[in-house]
Give the backbone structure.
Amino acid sequence: GPKGGWQQIVQPVLPKGALLGGVTMESGRVLVAGSEPNGRKGRSPFLVTWNGTAWSALSIAGASPTKWQIAGLAADGRGGFWVLGFRNSGNPGKLWHVVAGQWTAAAATPFGKHAWLLEEITAVPHTDSVWGAGALKVGKNGALGLIGLAGPTPR
């Protein structure tokens, strides 16, 4: 395990009802993502960052904040990061690429009309590619494993 074991560090001030869903390291800072109840029968995502001494909140303008929970983060190796979102309603997940505070939704998925859910994502450093693993819903109660790639196939 980690050298010296786990330790609890100073905690950020989190919104009431916050659920945390992702952590990654990018450009010398730790990013932690979560969501909070928004009063519109949904959840709004939020991000906090640790710079080595203190926590601060990050802006998430353009993040489609009314229905998505953040399930994962992956650094892109170039100062940005990928965000994996999902809705509790069983709708497909969503993937954003965030660079300099600007959220851009990834292209629609090639998984046809099947409902899908990615459970984990990881970025290929210094590229525009991110891998995901999860499941496709098939039939009424069935599911198949899913490995997906957004962006060019790494060589």
About this structure: The mean pLDDT is 79. Residues 61 and 102 are 7 Å apart (CA to CA). The two ends are 31 Å apart (CA to CA). The first strand starts at residue 19 and ends at 26.
